[in-house]
Amino acid sequence: MPYGPYVTIDLDKxxxxxxxxxxxCGKHGIEVCGVTKVxxxxxQVAKAMLRGGVACIGESRMKNIHRLKANGVAAExxxxxxxxxxxxxxxxxxxxxxxxxxLSVIQALSEAAFRRGLVxxxxxxxxxxxxxxxxxxxxxxxxxREVVELPGIRxxxxxxxxxxxxxxxxxxxxxxxxxxxxxxxxxxxDIKLRYISGGNSSSLNLIASGKMPRGVNxxxxxxxxxxxRETIHRRAWPDAHQDAFLLxxxxxxxxxxxxxxxxxxxxxxxxxxxxxxxxxxRDRAILNIGREDVVVEGLKPVEPNISILGASSDHLIADVxxxxxxxxxxxxxxxxxxxxxxxxxxxxxxxxxxMRGIELVSEHRHVxxxxxxxxxxxxxxxxxxxxxxxxxxNQLGVFFTRRQHIRDDRKVVSEAMAEIIDEDLVPLVYANxxxxxxxxxxxxxxxxxxxxxxIFSAHxxxxxxFSELPVGPGGEAPRLESERIVFVGLxxxxxxxxxxxxxxxxxxxxxxxxxxLGMREVMYxxxxxxxxxxxxxxxxxxxxxxxxxxxPAVSRPVRGGLSYREGHLxxxxxxxxGLMRSLxxxxxxPEKDVNRATADxxxxxxxxxxxxxxxxx
Length: 617
Ligand SMILES: *Cc1c(COP(=O)(O)O)cnc(C)c1O
Prior knowledge:
By secondary structure, the chain is of the alpha/beta class. It folds into three domains: 11-226, TIM Barrel, CATH 3.20.20; 245-264 and 275-359, Lyase, Ornithine Decarboxylase, Chain A, domain 1 (Beta Barrel), CATH 2.40.37.10; 365-609, Arginase, Chain A, CATH 3.40.800.10. The strands form three sheets. Strands 17, 18, 19, 20, 21, 22, 23, 24 and 25 form a nine-stranded parallel β-sheet that branches. Strands 1, 10, 11, 12, 13, 14, 15 and 16 form an eight-stranded mixed β-sheet that branches. Strand 24 (537-542), helix 17 (564-577) and strand 25 (580-586) form a beta-alpha-beta unit. Helix 1 crosses helix 2 (43-51), helix 4 crosses helix 5 and helix 15 packs across helix 16. The longest helix has 18 residues, at 172-189.
């Protein structure tokens, strides 16, 4: 156990606060963007906010956004800080929307997006008097006139930021001005703005009072969710927790001492001249935390009868005379204000301990291994090495049961899949013959939860398996919808197949897309599409998605597939997302497999999907 100070982060409380605030805002037609920047973009925090109903994640730093995405946060991202000119390329490929106020930056974003055939969303910020970022209202229409002409840019909305610098309070008046500016832009250029973004946590009071103008339909909330406070008076928000984050430090000295220092006084360690009130002898505790770790002025002891006397770089001194049961080696806990939280989350000396009261429901760890084969008995050379797979799953702490092999009949496969999913177990089916897939998808479409799917495959022909999905239980919509299906790794697609993709709204990433965007980005987008509004995802790994040097023994090999590393990166990102509810591994021709290289690779990728670290991303 590390013995420095630490911050506990109660993810259930963050989720609860997010739900309180998104519910309130939802009643007023306002969508909430959850802001994680004060936590340095902590993935668990972003996931808790998303569970609590925020529509997207707002961050100020690209580095945080990349960390969130790499850790399986499947959300839309908004870049809050006005982007630097130099970051255009990174921004258009990595974030969905950025807040902007400078024409030349928007031009750079346009150029970068257009070059890649992308469209980047911007929110134009208007300065309504707080004097931080934003276009001056007089300059708004002239600027928009230029922006609407730019290729690769969509003006998604108009926003403002108040209270952060000038302390300006959001009011019916300035918010109406924002709505008026937006309407003027819409009329002058005949465009529709998706968002009118009415600020940050300082707008919560206005929303709760019902006085936020109706046009405002978006807000960006950090502190309100994380610390459970509005930020005009810093009052606790109703039905929100203020202690989702607590700082803990250890008592390293506990002694009775006089309350006034002895001797001639000069400057203290920070150039101040301290003053002291004589209260006689007091019990004083020194804690192993100081100005190097937090903003001491932003701490408040959880125990009410303790007061902070002062601090130097590494020591915090507290008067504990009134406190009971304290001892050397014990700990004290503190509430933090925004500044103290920011410093504690940034300090490398302060350990972060995210906690959840309940077990992660999305982390299904009980797997059913089942083989699908055409003969009446199992394959003598299956696509995975069963013993090795079983041992590997064991090591990863994944429980598994083995089922008798499933006969390769569409109806039989479909029913077996649905049955396993209904039992809340994860089917891990493997089959040498890729034609097993339609039965698998039918089973998914029929089974209880709504699932998305990520299909790794080289051939467009695998798309046709989705052209005839059955309706769900009770004649409802299929449990697997085409909007939530993503293909990755395609490189042989006929024109009819690409038409089918377009008609059905299936997403497809070809090898070309992977070259342009990078595997990380493609996987992140795939995870987002497949998980949006679903209870998890199914993954099909057709071994022909991988390059022939990695998996040569497939039925119809095509060169130029996913590299060994790209494959593992993809699997590890899926594992980290905790979203996988079902897995199929298909396409194997044992006669072609010299030294079982392809089977070994398949086994390794499956373990990677369950969290075995190969690349250590
Ligand atoms: C930080 C930030 C927010 C969130 O502010 P909170 O006071 O934490 O709610 C919203 N918008 C912008 C532009 C920000 O920089």
